[in-house]
Structures are given as C-alpha cells and as structure tokens.
C-alpha cells in the first residue's frame, strides 16, 4: 500500500502546476479538507489532487475516507479513472458505508461501461441511506447511462 500511495503521489506531483496555490494556505489549518473543497468548488481539480495527495501523506490524512473520496473525485474529473478507482477503494476500505465514495465510484463505473458495478453501489446506497441525495444522484446517472 505504501508503494502505491507513493506512486500515486509522484504521479500527481509530476502533473501539477503549483502556481497560485498560496490562496488556499490559510484554509489548511481551520478545517482539514476545506482547502481541497474550495479548490474543487472552483473546478481546480489538478490543484486539489496535489493538495489531497500531500494531505494523505500526513499521519492525520492517511486514514481519512473523506480525503480519499475527494481525491477520487478530483482524479475522475481529470479523466484519471484507474487512479480515481484506487482512491475510492481506499475510502471504502476505511469506511464501507461512505455515501459519497459509493456514489462517485458508481458514476466512475458508468464511465468505464461497468453498469453492474454501478448498480451494486446503488444497492449499497439503498441499504445504507434509503433515498438520500447520493442514492438519488447515482440513480439519475444510471438512468442517463441507460438512455444513451
């Protein structure tokens, strides 16, 4: 696992342009993931990937299902599907009922043409939350996929 995490970090670091990252620095101390969330809300997926990769190298971040989920999201939005899948799997290994990771990895499975796996995630969401926002969003994504 350490080797895969290191390789993921090196992969991300090699692709990131660090210019402009200073404006998020002050958010690192207030709420651990608020800087990454701000980057993602501005669609700065590459920058968020770098920040999250660094955070996941820290002792505090290593076991953060939320951080792994956000990393998966940022990687998926960049089209790095295999790396995103790995990140979602890490989030779900830490917290199998992580609603966001179930939804987002389900959407990733649709991008990979793996409808059955997306439907498995939908079933898990139904089990864990019973009609929550994540379930509704994955359900909508599956309907759109089937309509194509």
Strand residues, percent: under 5%
Task: Give the SSE string.
Answer: HHHHHHHHH
β-strand number: 0
Report low-confidence residues grouped into runs of 5 or more: 1-7, 9-30
How would you describe this structure in keywords?
single chain, 148 residues, mainly alpha, 74% helix, disordered N terminus
Structural overview:
With 148 residues, this protein is mainly alpha-helical. 74% of the residues lie in helices and 0% in strands.
What would a concise description of this structure say?
This protein is mainly alpha-helical. 74% of the residues lie in helices and 0% in strands.
Topology:
Layout: H1 2-15, H2 27-30, H3 34-41, H4 45-57, H5 65-77, H6 81-94, H7 99-111, H8 115-129, H9 133-147
